[in-house]
Amino acid sequence: MTTKQKIAILGAGESGVGTAVLALKQGFEVFVSDRGRIKEKYKNKLGEIGVEWEEEIHSEERILSADVVMKSPGIPDTAPLVVKLKEKNIPVISEIEFAGKYTDATIIGITGSNGKTTTTKWTYHILKNAGLNVGMAGNVGDSFALQVAETNVDYYVLELSSFQLDGIESFRPHISAIVNITPDHLDRYNYNLEEYVASKFRITKNQTEEDFFIYDSDDELIKSWLKDHPVKAKELPFSVSQKLENGAYLEDNNIKITTQNTQFIMPKSSLALEGQHNTKNAMAASTIAQLLRIRKETIRASMESFQGVEHRLEKVLKINNVLYINDSKATNINATYYALDSMDTETVWIVGGVDKGNNYAELLPLVNEKVKAIICLGVDNSKIFEAFGNCVELMSETQSMAEAVQMAYKIADKGNAVLLSPACASFDLFENYEDRGRQFKDAVRNL
């Protein structure tokens, strides 16, 4: 009789529970362990499928007897239990690595510091409109593992964070994309930018000459890494500043994409989303669609009809001629840079949260030019006060979203904008960036 392989799953959130469902289906003996409290809906799911679980504790002896461990992305590699597992040479993998082994679908993997959600959803939107049988997972939607267990699709579009990529060994997307790299999550990478860049490039590490790698060739960090670390996949860069023989570029306000000797041209003005960063996101998504031989008319129509992403420069309401904008998804400096850069009126800026090693100096020119007042929303706002104390006349701090929005309402004059663009993680006062964004929208609607 064959002994069942044992898998221990650390973390009972979306990826952990999805992995439990798939592992059970694949004949593993499954045990789920979470150091925190498990949400009721996940407890119910685990109970429904008959998987053993524990919360607010890790039974180390049991976990250390597993053949393989799936670690949720939020758990750092430095966690004592993870260190012990690695010392015992027990494989510690991500959900992406585990689920990737059990699907024959063509995989499109998209990463980047900013814009990966928009690019993923835009790509999915085109493929869906083209009538392809496609799933979307990773950092968005239901977990990849759950979808592999419960559905059967021909294509997956996966949004992949650096934390998910850290836990891959053999995972190989047919098409990979890095939409940009800017300093982010440095607290998880020993405040070493090179470690973070290396993490992003894991997306292409298992690709071969038969695969494709799409990237921003205007991005200095990406260009510099590629010089010293050549990739095997066929490279398809995109750029808004230079003409390219293969890939996507901008010329006379037209996006031109050349892949496999086929050219596709589309006016930039027809894109549903504004801003140079969204032009680049559109280039990446269109290049993927072109590689999959989707009809040009379908690509064009999808570029025009895409609605964008919740919590990313989302216009909420106009009250007394003041526009309230939810950019809660801006959890790093670069994302907030895009947001402030897109403001064309005087702005009351709500900022703050858990600092991830931010260097606020990059924002100084934009704050001087566009921001009339700053409202800090976080447990520790000292770095923000230090960076911008001399830039604006009015700076205050608060511990709740409702209070921050009330304060902004009093400060903003007709024609101003109120922008929530925190540049920080949300975990000090909120469950996640979605919770933060929803609280902002609720507070605005209650004004």
UniProtKB/TrEMBL annotation:
Q: What residues form the membrane-spanning segments?
A: none
Does the record bear Oxidoreductase in its keywords? Answer: no
| UniProt KW keywords | ATP-binding, Cell cycle, Cell division, Cell shape, Cell wall biogenesis/degradation, Cytoplasm, Ligase, Nucleotide-binding, Peptidoglycan synthesis
- Where is this protein chiefly located? cytoplasm
Keyword Transport applies: no
Q: What is its EC number?
A: 6.3.2.9
Q: Which reaction does it catalyse?
A: UDP-N-acetyl-alpha-D-muramoyl-L-alanine + D-glutamate + ATP = UDP-N-acetyl-alpha-D-muramoyl-L-alanyl-D-glutamate + ADP + phosphate + H(+)
Localization per record? Cytoplasm
| PANTHER family hit by this protein | UDP-N-ACETYLMURAMOYLALANINE--D-GLUTAMATE LIGASE (PTHR43692:SF1)
Outline what the protein does.
Cell wall formation. Catalyzes the addition of glutamate to the nucleotide precursor UDP-N-acetylmuramoyl-L-alanine (UMA).
What the record says about family reads: Belongs to the MurCDEF family.
Q: Which protein, by its recorded name, is this? A: UDP-N-acetylmuramoylalanine--D-glutamate ligase
Q: Which organism is it from?
A: Antarcticibacterium flavum
User: Which gene is the coding source of this polypeptide chain?
Assistant: murD
